[in-house]
Design brief:
Number of strands of chain B: 0
Shape of chain A: elongated
Oligomer: heterodimer
Strand content of chain A: under 5%
Shape of chain B: globular
Mean pLDDT of chain A: 81
Low-confidence stretches of chain B: none
Distance between the termini of chain B: 7 Å
Low-confidence stretches of chain A: 1-6, 282-286
Number of strands of chain A: 0
Distance between the termini of chain A: 24 Å
Strand content of chain B: under 5%
Order of helices and strands of chain A: HHHHHHHHHHHH
Order of helices and strands of chain B: HHHHHHHHHHHH
Chain lengths: 286, 313
C-alpha cells in the first residue's frame, strides 16, 4: 500500500524518464555512440587515416573489423571520425535553432503587434520542404561545416519559434505572470524568468528531435553532393563515396548508413521518453 | 463561413508574397556579385556585365523586387541560365515523375500505415502494437537514400523484379514510366508511413475511448463495423492533417529518391541547378513547391470544415 504522502507525490522526472525500457536503451546507445566517436580515435586503437592501396575494398574481417574503403582506409576508424562531424552538426543545429526560435517565439508571443507579421513569416518559412530550403541555402553559403549548421538552423528555427510562441501565449496569461507584472517586474524579466523557464520542456523535446532531423538532413545533403566539403568526412559523405562500389563492396554504404539510423533512432526514442516524462498529462498514456 | 473563407484566402496570399520575398532575399544573401557567382570563376567582366543587365541587377533593389514579385504572380519565374529556357516550362517538363512519385508513395504510405495504425490502436499494448510503433520509428530513422540503395541493389539488380533506375527513356509509354516508379515509391512510402502510422494510432486511441464507441458496442454492433464506421470516420480529421503535412516530407524525400533512382523529376532538376548555380531554377522550384504546400494546407483546413460540422470559425 502506498502511504498518503506517496500518493500525493507525483513521480519524479527521472523515474518517469527511466520507466520505459526503450528510453533507457536509446539513451545508453546514444551516449555510447558519442563516446566512441570522440574517445576511440584519440586512443588510436585502429590504424586511422593510414592508407594502403593493397588492402583496398577488403571486406570486414580480422584485419579490418568493418572492412577497408577504396583507398584502403579502415572503415571503422573513418566512421568514428566522420561521426564527430555528423554529431557536431546535429548538436550545433539543435542549439542554434532552439536559441533563435526561443527569441523569435517569445517576441511573437509577447508583443501583439509583432505577432501577426512574425507568425506569417514562420508560416512562409515552413512552406519550404526542409531539404529543398537547406539545398538552396548551402548552395548560397558554400559547403563548410559551419555553413551547413547555419543553413539547417535557418530551416528548423521556425519550428521551435512556433512552439515557443504557442506556449508563451498560454503561460503569459497565468496568475503568477500577472502577479509578477503587478509587482513591477520588467517585461524582459517576465519573459526570461517567468515564461521561458516554464516552457523549457517542450523546447527541450523539440531540440532533441531537431538534433535527429538535422543529422538525417545533413546526410541527405551530403549524399546529394551539396553538403559539407568532401575533404571533411561525414556519414552521409561515406555513403556517397561508397555508391561507386555498391556492387563489389556493399558494406561501404551499409555501415555509415547504420550509424546514421542508429543515432537518429536513439535520439528520437530519447525525445519520445522526454516528452512523456516532462508532460504529466501524458503519463497515463502508453 | 464566407468571412472565414475570405480571411483564409487573404492569409494564404500574404504567405505566398512572403514566400516570394524569402526566395528573392535568399539569392541576394550570397556574398559577392550574383552575376559573377552564377557564371563561375572563368567569366570575363564583360560577360558578368551582360548578365547583370539581362537579369536587371543594375536596377535599384526595390525595382528588382517589384518586378520579381509582379512577374512571379503573372506566372513568369525567369529564365534558366543553363537551359536558356523559361523556368516554368522546364518545371512543367519535369513535373510528371515527381507528381506521380509523390502520389504513388503517398498511396503506399497510407496502404502500409493506416491498417497497421488502426490495428495497433485496437490491440493497444500488445506485442504487435509495440513492434509496429518501434518499426515506424526505425523507418523514419533510416535515411531514404540508404533504403533506396538497398532496394535498388537487392530487388532490382539481384532479383531483377524492378527496373534499376531511370524513367524508361523518352518514348516510353505510361505503364513503363509508372513501372519505373514502383520501387522509388515504395522507398519513399516506407519513410513517410511512420508519421501517418503514429497519427492514425494516436487518433484511433482517442476515439476508441469515446462514449459513442462504447454505446455502439453495447448495442451489439459487430466489432468491424464499430471500428470502420464509428471510429475510423471520426479519426479521419487528424489523418487528413497528417497527409497534408507529409507533403513537405514527400517533396524532401523525392529530391533524394529521384537522385538515387535517377528520375528526371523536379528533385533531380533542383539538385543539378544547385550544382550548376542556376539560381533562377532554384528560386522557381522553391516558389512552386512552397505555393503548392500553402494551397494543400488551405485545402485540408477547408476539408475539415466540410467533414466535421462541429468545427466553427
Amino acid at each position: 500500500m502506498a502511504s498518503v504522502s506517496q500518493l500525493h507525490q507525483p513521480p519524479s522526472f527521472r523515474v518517469v524518464l527511466m520507466a520505459r525500457r526503450s528510453t533507457v536503451v536509446a539513451l545508453v546507445c546514444f551516449v555510447l555512440i558519442v563516446l566512441a566517436c570522440f574517445l576511440l580515435p584519440a586512443l588510436d586503437l585502429t590504424a586511422i587515416g593510414g592508407m594502403s592501396v593493397r588492402n583496398r575494398l577488403t571486406p570486414p574481417g580480422a584485419d579490418y573489423f568493418l572492412g577497408a574503403d577504396a583507398f584502403g582506409r579502415d572503415v571503422l576508424g573513418r566512421l568514428l571520425i566522420a561521426g564527430q562531424t555528423s554529431l557536431q552538426i546535429g548538436l550545433g543545429v539543435a542549439i542554434l535553432s532552439s536559441s533563435a526560435g526561443i527569441v523569435i517565439g517569445l517576441i511573437a508571443g509577447f508583443f501583439r503587434r509583432l505577432d501577426t507579421p512574425l507568425s506569417r513569416l514562420i508560416d512562409a518559412m515552413m512552406a519550404f520542404p526542409d531539404i529543398l530550403l537547406a539545398l538552396a541555402l548551402v548552395a548560397i553559403f558554400g559547403g563548410t561545416v559551419g555553413n551547413v549548421i547555419l543553413a539547417l538552423s535557418i530551416v528548423y528555427t521556425p519550428r521551435v519559434a512556433r512552439i515557443v510562441r504557442a506556449s508563451t501565449l498560454v503561460v503569459r496569461e497565468l496568475p503568477y505572470v500577472e502577479a509578477a507584472r503587478a509587482l513591477g517586474s520588467s517585461t524582459l524579466t517576465i519573459m526570461v524568468t517567468h515564461v521561458l523557464r516554464n516552457i523549457l520542456s517542450p523546447i527541450l523535446v523539440q531540440a532533441t528531435f531537431i538534433f535527429a532531423y538535422a543529422m538525417l538532413a545533413e546526410a541527405g545533403l551530403t549524399f546529394l553532393g551539396v553538403g559539407v566539403d568532401p575533404s571533411t568526412p561525414t556519414w552521409g559523405a561515406m555513403v556517397n563515396e561508397g555508391r561507386q562500389y555498391i556492387d563489389t563492396a556493399f558494406f561501404l554504404i551499409l555501415f555509415p548508413g547504420i550509424a546514421i539510423a542508429l543515432s537518429v533512432l536513439s535520439l528520437q526514442l530519447v525525445g519520445d521518453g522526454l516528452r512523456d516524462a516532462l508532460d504529466p498529462k501524458l503519463n497515463k498514456e502508453t | 463561413m464566407a468571412n472565414y473563407l475570405l480571411r483564409r484566402v487573404v492569409g494564404m496570399f500574404v504567405v505566398i508574397i512572403l514566400v516570394l520575398t524569402i526566395t528573392f532575399v535568399l539569392v541576394r544573401l550570397a556574398p559577392g556579385d550574383p552575376a559573377a557567382l552564377m557564371l563561375g570563376p572563368d567569366a570575363t567582366p564583360q560577360e558578368a556585365a551582360d548578365l547583370r543587365t539581362r537579369l536587371g541587377l543594375d536596377d535599384p533593389i526595390i525595382v528588382q523586387y517589384a518586378k520579381f514579385v509582379g512577374n512571379a504572380l503573372k506566372g513568369d519565374l525567369g529564365e534558366s541560365l543553363f537551359f536558356n529556357r523559361p523556368v516554368t516550362s522546364i518545371l512543367a517538363d519535369r513535373a510528371e515523375p515527381t507528381i506521380f512519385l509523390a502520389l504513388m508513395s503517398l498511396f503506399f504510405a497510407l496502404f502500409i500505415a493506416t491498417p497497421i495504425g488502426i490495428y495497433a490502436a485496437y490491440k493497444r499494448g500488445s506485442l504487435l502494437d509495440q513492434s509496429s510503433v518501434t518499426s515506424a520509428m526505425l523507418a523514419a530513422s533510416i535515411p531514404s537514400f540508404l533504403t533506396g540503395l538497398v532496394f535498388q541493389r537487392v530487388l532490382a539488380t539481384n532479383f531483377g523484379w524492378f527496373p534499376t533506375a531511370g524513367y524508361g527513356g523518352p518514348d516510353a509509354d505510361l505503364w513503363v514510366r509508372l513501372g519505373h516508379l514502383i520501387l522509388p515509391s515504395i522507398t519513399l512510402g516506407i519513410t513517410n508511413s511512420a508519421l501517418i502510422l503514429r497519427f492514425t494510432r494516436a487518433s484511433m486511441l482517442d476515439i476508441l475511448g469515446e462514449d459513442y464507441v462504447r454505446t455502439a458496442r453495447a448495442k451489439g454492433m459487430p466489432e468491424a463495423r464499430v471500428i470502420l464506421r464509428h471510429a475510423l470516420k471520426n479519426a479521419g480529421i487528424p489523418i487528413i492533417t497528417v497527409v497534408g503535412l507529409t507533403f513537405a516530407l514527400l517533396v524532401s524525400g523525392a529530391v533524394v529518391t529521384e537522385r538515387v533512382f535517377n528520375l528526371p523529376g523536379m528533385g533531380n532538376l533542383v539538385v543539378n541547378a544547385v550544382l550548376r548555380r542556376d539560381y533562377p531554377v532554384i528560386q522557381g522550384t522553391l516558389i512552386v513547391v512552397a505555393s503548392i504546400y500553402v494551397l494543400i494546407n488551405l485545402a485540408t483546413d477547408l476539408l475539415y470544415f466540410f467533414i466535421d460540422k462541429r468545427v466553427k470559425y
